[in-house]
Design goal:
The complex is a heterodimer of chains A (100) and B (279). Chain A is mainly alpha-helical. Chain A has one domain: Helix Hairpins (Orthogonal Bundle). Helices cover 56% and strands 1% of the residues of chain B. Chain B folds into 3 domains: 94 residues, Four Helix Bundle (Hemerythrin (Met), subunit A), CATH 1.20.120.1200; 36 residues; 89 residues, no CATH class. The chains are: A mainly alpha (100), B mainly alpha (279). Chains A and B meet through helix 1, helix 2 and helix 3 of A and helix 1, helix 2, helix 3, helix 4 and helix 5 of B.
């Protein structure tokens, strides 16, 4: 029988994969994708706990997370395009003008 | 014991279990592939796989509304936006495999394992009970139930969301908008630049007078030799020893640079072909 614990465990694994991706990858767009993966994992945990408690509040929170994630992606990718336009690179190592 | 309803319930349980394991393995494999794939486009496609499997998992968890929102908003809108920006930034931009910080991968892996252990312990200690008894809230009444919550208890966050979305749309427009920092080059300036570049005419087209007219066929020049300039760099790969200067778009804020290598210093070499105009 698949219980909510299974879904929570899956969300933990996906969250860790996303976190490692954020740490490892150098392309800023891929880093963004990994952040999205982490947000999705958190959403899965919300929905699983909503199922466990028998309420819909978790689903509403997951819905809000999706909205905020969409807004975040729009602004983040706009920043990325403007950085790429100025520096001709999407690597996170290149944006070091504010260093020191 | 062998009542049809009992049998049907058991079969449904097995199907759910099977679906969960298939989707879970698919999602984890695609997630791992996402952080291992070198090309950003492959990452985007694998992320789509993860998001679609999550949508089906939402449906299994009694959240049909969220399953549809997941497909429409994430797979439809967000991933299309990712692919759109990837096309702008350069489809060929592969991630560099050089470690900028020494031992970063090792430490990132260790941190990941640590995080996994920590979260597993937290989840293991938390009381994750069985699913609540099935009700209409997780079936046909799901949308109504979410709407009822959204417009009563969560009405203020819902209103704030609208402000957030407007701000995000405005911010994206402001950030993506480009002010012209240099005057627009005139026709005269452009023609001077073209003459000075050493290649005043357009590059020869591929396959001209050759045996085939395929795009990867080098053009046959009047003296019988072939011209490798006629084949697009997208096909041949970046040419290292080109004398042609990087012809940037006319409204680029960088002045036409006599030395193309100056532009490329710092960035990965894969970004080079984006700047080379094929005339």
């Amino acid at each position: 029988m698949v219980s909510p614990a299974h879904f929570v465990a899956l969300s933990v694994i996906l969250f860790v994969i996303g976190a490692v991706g954020v740490l490892v990858r150098r392309n800023a767009i891929v880093v963004f994708m990994c952040v999205e993966l982490m947000l999705n994992a958190a959403n899965l945990a919300f929905v699983a706990f909503a199922r466990m408690h028998g309420g819909l509040d978790g689903q509403v929170i997951a819905f809000f997370v999706m909205v905020v994630a969409a807004a975040e992606v729009v602004v983040g990718l706009a920043i990325l395009t403007s950085i790429f336009r100025a520096r001709r690179s999407a690597s996170v190592d290149e944006a070091n003008l504010m260093k020191y | 014991m062998n009542h049809p309803i009992v049998l049907a319930a058991a079969a449904a349980t097995t199907t759910r279990e099977l679906a969960f394991w298939i989707l879970a393995i698919l999602a984890v494999a695609a997630g791992l592939g996402m952080i291992l794939a070198r090309r950003a486009v492959h990452c985007a496609v694998l992320l789509a796989v993860v998001m679609l499997s999550l949508a089906v998992l939402y449906a299994m968890l009694g959240a049909p509304f969220l399953a549809f929102v997941q497909v429409i908003v994430y797979t439809g809108a967000v991933l299309m936006l990712f692919l759109f920006v990837l096309m702008i930034v350069g489809i060929s931009a592969a991630d560099s495999i050089i470690e900028t910080i020494k031992g970063q991968r090792l430490w990132a892996g260790l941190a990941g394992i640590g995080l996994l252990v920590l979260l597993a312990l937290v989840i293991g200690n938390a009381v994750v009970g069985p699913a609540a008894p099935s009700s209409a809230k997780f079936g046909s009444g799901n949308v109504t139930g979410i709407a009822a919550l959204l417009f009563t208890r969560y009405v203020f966050p819902f209103e704030v969301t609208s402000a957030l979305l407007i701000t995000a749309a405005l911010g994206a427009m402001v950030l993506a908008h480009r002010e012209r920092t240099s005057p627009k080059p005139t026709q005269k300036a452009l023609s001077r630049q073209r003459i000075a570049s050493g290649q005043p005419t357009p590059l020869p087209g591929p396959g001209t007078y050759a045996r085939h007219n395929a795009v990867d066929m080098e053009a046959l020049l009047p003296d019988g030799t072939t011209s490798e300039l006629s084949v697009s760099e997208v096909i041949t790969g970046p040419r290292g020893d080109r004398e042609l200067p990087a012809v940037v778009a006319p409204d680029e804020d960088q002045a036409p640079d006599p030395d193309p290598d100056q532009v490329r210093v710092g960035g990965p070499a894969d970004h080079g072909p984006r700047e080379g105009g094929e005339a």
